[in-house]
Design brief:
- The protein has 11 helices and 18 strands.
- It is of the alpha/beta class.
- A 6-stranded parallel sheet has the order 3-2-1-10-9-8. The chain has a 5-stranded mixed sheet with strand order 12-18-17-14-15, with no helix packed on it.
- The longest helix is centred in the first third of the chain and has 18 residues.
- The radius of gyration is 25 Å and the shape is globular.
């Protein structure tokens, strides 16, 4: 049988598993060994090549200000760069100065200073796995399964153990099969219930929406449905602290079936709950020259799997969607990207297993060229009309390469940062880096570490006088980010000034490290302003007023706010139409 056809038929499984493969083969964190009884069910079994991933998953699993993270978390590491890193692998990420990682579950390594982003897994319940042909005959239920469960001993204990953390709810719910297959309306409901549960246990937690597998018209339609369903059900927009996306360039519908009653999946899938008519087509088979076919905007060829222009289009499309939905001033994470097509050679070193339409293979040189163009773009891409003002219009706040290591013959194996025999090396030994890993390390090292505290705003509040009281002592706040690329390990001071009294200092407060970078977390300094009389009182606050932090720009550290005391007694100007 033709090996390419075998791979193609198997690709439906591979694409549905492309994130979980890394989990299956390399991940398996547990929580700290010292744990309370309530946390005892959070110790996850280790994974290996023989693990049944479905059985494994079934068994284990506006902006709030940030709580103080783990001491020294992210210090000296570049938080722009991330990687999928499993048990026993974080030492390499730290040595490469990579700042964050995920594991596709809620396990974490207590011995690393890498920032961990835990993922809560969900899946809509259904009768069966459907058939192999459209419309796949899935009978979805009005229910879903979540891992860990929404119980005090399950997710509640995990959330309470690490306050202030960012949580991702789901992984590619747009993909049918072995990812977090969930229809858009059910995802909106699941997100609401999980978000509410997390905030009950930790009001300082941040929550991110699941990353969809790609950003095509069909995927944006999936997001539209989630957005509209949430508003219809709960009466307000979905509360997302950080938006999230994946970016893999894959055809979604086999073109020769696109207009038939039974359109078929291509190397990827069209988004769950959306019309196949929105899907990107695979090229027509059997052409002698694919140049014109691959130039069609409706078509995604395998030769375009590493297209920088499509990569850039998808980043901009996601940011445009966010702006259109009032979400421009929110962080955006690219929590997965790389090349998925494997690179496998025969005994003579010839690549015959998988080639694109022009008989080119997905060599390490090709992967590195894609990494070069995409990472350079991510480091430099800004647009004040699309990106958030608190990060100088930067389009993507953080990005994550898939992965440190996956089975070389599986989806994503061509993008491995570690050699196949990396386990023979001492953890953290950079000699275990692959050619691609060396390149990623070079990119990290070429981006100098810096810190920049960026003031956002002071609070704007009103308070009433207590009975028989003549003054009030309200709490006021100053909000800020660190939009540098590394965490702050110095304690610094935020001072508050009375703008109605010559700008004199009336109080200060200390901020303890670490303050994470990359403008992902919004921080707050709060103080009590005592003995205010009725009226409007204006204040300013200066972040790092004693200049302890060595930052790139001290001119964006001041914020302004006001508090109204007993506003009912104030006489406002009257305006009348003549």
């Amino acid at each position: 049988m033709n090996k390419g056809i075998m791979w193609r038929k198997g690709w439906l499984i591979l694409t549905m598993l492309f994130s979980v493969i890394g989990l299956t083969l390399s991940l398996g964190y547990g929580v700290p060994t010292a744990q309370s009884e309530a946390q005892s069910d959070l110790v996850y079994p280790a994974l290996n090549k023989n693990t049944n991933i479905i059985a494994f998953l079934s068994n284990i699993m506006g902006h709030d200000e940030a709580a103080a993270p783990t001491q020294n978390e992210g210090v000296g590491l570049n938080c722009r760069f991330g990687v999928v890193a499993g048990q026993g692998q974080t030492a390499w990420a730290e040595e490469m100065d990579i700042g964050w990682h995920l594991t596709f579950n809620t396990g974490y390594d207590p011995n690393t200073i890498l920032t961990n982003v835990p993922m809560i897994r969900i899946k809509q319940d259904k009768d069966n796995n459907g058939t192999d042909d459209y419309p796949y005959d899935d009978n979805y239920h009005d229910s879903y399964t979540v891992t860990p469960p929404l119980t005090p001993q399950g997710l509640g204990a995990r959330v309470a153990a690490t306050p202030g953390q960012l949580w991702i709810i789901g992984n590619e719910p747009d993909v049918r099969g072995f990812q977090d297959e969930t229809m858009p309306d059910m995802y909106a409901r699941a997100y609401h219930e999980i978000y509410t549960f997390i905030k009950q246990y930790d009001p300082s937690a941040k929550v991110s929406i699941a990353g969809l597998s790609t950003i095509t018209p069909g995927r944006l339609n999936y997001l539209d449905q989630v957005w509209d369903s949430y508003i219809a059900r709960y009466g307000h927009p979905i509360p997302v602290d950080a938006w999230n996306m994946h970016l893999y360039i894959l055809a979604e519908v086999q073109q020769h079936t696109a207009n038939s009653p039974t359109p078929l999946y291509a190397d990827g899938q069209y988004a769950l709950g959306t019309s196949p008519s929105l899907g990107k087509w695979s090229p027509l088979p059997g052409l002698s020259d694919y140049t014109q076919e691959c130039a069609r905007s409706r078509v995604y060829c395998r030769a375009e799997h590493d297209s920088f222009s499509i990569f850039r289009e998808q980043i901009i499309a996601m940011r445009q969607w966010m702006k259109d939905h009032g979400q421009q001033e929110k962080p955006l994470l690219l929590s997965e990207f790389s090349l998925l097509y494997p690179y496998i050679t025969d005994a003579d070193g010839n690549c015959e297993y998988l080639q694109d339409e022009f008989q080119n293979c997905f060599t390490p040189q090709r992967v590195n060229a894609y990494m070069d163009s995409t990472v350079n773009y991510l480091l430099s891409a800004t647009d004040p009309n699309l990106g958030p003002s608190f990060d100088n219009g930067r389009l993507v706040q953080q990005w994550l390469w898939f992965s440190l290591w996956a089975d070389p013959e599986s989806s994503g194996g061509s993008s491995n940062l570690l050699l196949p025999n990396y386990s023979d090396y001492t953890p953290g030994d950079l000699d275990a880096l692959s050619e691609i890993g060396q390149n990623y390390h070079t990119h990290v090292q070429s981006d100098p570490l810096y810190i920049n505290l960026h003031g956002v705003t002071g609070s704007h509040t009103s308070v009433s006088l207590e009975s028989n009281a003549t003054t009030a002592s309200p709490t006021i706040r100053a909000y800020f980010y660190n939009n540098g690329n590394t965490a702050i390990d110095d304690t610094f001071v935020v001072s508050f000034y009375d703008e109605d009294n010559g700008g004199t200092v009336f109080t200060s407060t200390g901020i303890s490290p670490s303050v994470l970078g990359c403008a992902r977390d919004l921080y707050v300094a709060e103080v009590v302003w005592p003995n205010l009389t009725p009226g409007i009182h204006h204040f300013s606050a200066r972040i790092d007023s004693t200049n302890v932090v060595n930052e790139t720009n001290n001119n964006d550290n001041i914020v302004y706010g006001f508090v109204i005391v007993d506003g009912s007694s104030l006489y406002m100007p009257a305006i009348a139409r003549q």
